[in-house]
Structure formats: C-alpha cells, structure tokens
Design goal:
- The protein has about 250 residues and is α/β, with parallel strands linked by helices.
- The chain has a single domain, classed as 3-Layer(aba) Sandwich (Rossmann fold).
- Strands 3-4-2-5-1-6-7-8 form an eight-stranded mixed sheet, with helices on both faces.
- Helix 8 links the parallel strand 7 and strand 8.
C-alpha cells in the first residue's frame, strides 16, 4: 500500500524542500520505491534540487487534464521519480491534486508531497491529498509557531502527523530546547538535522546531500528520519563514524 506523506512547515525558509528531496533519496537508498511531487505551485523548485531542467510536461498539465501522471514523471539517477510543477503557470486547480493521484497509487511505496509554505490553499490541497503529514521546522520560536499552525491544519483535515523534524540545528543556546519544543508542538521530534556547509554545497551542485556526502552527519541524520518514518529504529553507528563527526564539526560553516 502506498503511503502518501505531505511535508509541511507553516513557514518558508526552514529547509522543507531540501528535507523532502533528501528524505526521498534516503528512502530510495533504503530500497523503497519513491515519488517526490512538487506541490508548491507558487514556488516550484523540487526539480532544481535534482539538477533537472525545464520539463515539457508538469504536474500542472496533469491537473489541467492535458496529460497523464505517468507522462509527467521523470526518473532521477538517484532512484526517485520526480513529478515537477511549473512556477510559470498559476491557473492550475490545486484542488485536483488528490484526483490526479488516484490511479497512480499502489505502484509506489512512498509518495512525498513538498507542500508550499504557510497554511493557504496550496498547503491544504497537499495535506488533503495525503494520508500523513511530516512537520519540518527550525528550532526557533517563529518557525515553531508556524509549524503549530500547519499541525492544526492537518488535524482539521484528520490526517495523521508523523512527527516533527528539526532542521538546520546548530546547537546554540539561542535555539529553543527540545523539551520546550515538545511542550509547544505536542509532537515527537523524530529527527534533528544539523546545519552544515555540506547542505549548501549540495544545493549549489543541485545534488541531494545524502548523495553528495553520503557518510556525513547530515546524511546520517536524514537517513535516521527515513527509518523513523518507516517505523524502524535507526542503526547504531560505530566509533570511527563518531570520530568523523567530530572532524566535521570543526568545519561546520
């Protein structure tokens, strides 16, 4: 049975699209069949994270009834299928997203929908089209407050919330403590992904960081999220890996 998960943040600038693209690749590397859908019509950029150029057929065409969903899919060398949207077209009816997926479900293990920022109509369409919701936030109060709004939307639409992923974690005293985050959001923190220059390098290279630096702390953190999304405990890592983490930490930014 296909699991359809919308990745939402409630606020832009927290690395939600980066998380979606890397989580998809991490799941694929764990032998899952994954499709990543760009559900952000006002800021479509999933394709950019994978170094894909302009696509002749996009999700907009599918939802407008001009193409089948299989025509819009692009297979990436990292093992995931990408369903890009077009930022140049704003007349697509985002409410048709769920209907566009119906005939497609069952062929894949996971469908990840990269939702737009905020809690507007585009986000509502992405959440409505999914069965589960994954929250992404920085450990900062404004981002967490907006994530709380995204959680409320998911609850109103009766979708299961898988948990909260903290992104761009720096370990600074100014960041909200985990216990306070859980008190505020009332969801389990299922991952903490550090802020590191490896992520920015990967974005510049248009290659997911889990492929760019597969043995890095960041990539391992994302793989851990993938395991938890699947209901599994992440693997234990040995002393040599922990030593490598320490070396990475010297050159974080």
């Amino acid at each position: 049975m296909t699991r359809v998960i919308s990745v939402v943040s409630g606020k832009g600038g927290v690395g939600k699209t980066t998380m979606t693209s890397n989580l998809g690749v991490a799941l694929a590397k764990q032998d899952e069949d994954v499709v990543i859908i760009d559900g952000n019509f006002s800021g479509a950029n999933i394709a950019q994270h994978f170094g894909m150029g302009f696509q002749e057929v996009s999700l907009n065409d599918v939802m407008n009834g001009d193409a089948y969903i299989t025509q819009a899919l692009a297979k990436h060398p990292e093992g995931v299928s990408i369903l890009p949207a077009s930022i140049l077209e704003f007349d697509a009816d985002s409410e048709n997203l769920k209907h566009a997926l119906i005939d497609f479900l069952g062929d894949k293990d996971f469908v990840l929908i990269d939702a737009a920022a905020g809690v507007g109509e585009e986000v509502e369409a992405a959440v409505e089209a999914s069965d589960e919701v994954l929250l992404v936030s920085k450990p900062e109060l404004p981002a967490l407050t907006n994530a709380l709004g995204a959680k409320k939307l998911a609850e109103e639409l009766e979708r299961e919330v898988l948990g909260l992923v903290l992104n761009e974690v720096r370990g600074e005293k100014s960041e909200v403590r985990n216990e306070d985050i859980q008190d505020l959001v009332q969801e389990e923190i299922i991952g903490e992904v550090p802020d590191h220059k490896h992520v920015r390098e990967a974005i510049a290279l248009r290659n997911p960081v889990v492929s760019h630096k597969p043995k890095s702390r960041v990539s391992h953190a994302i793989h851990d999220v993938a395991h938890r999304v699947k209901g599994q405990e992440p693997p234990e890592r040995g002393l040599s890996t922990k030593i490598r983490y320490k070396v990475e930490d010297i050159d974080l930014f």
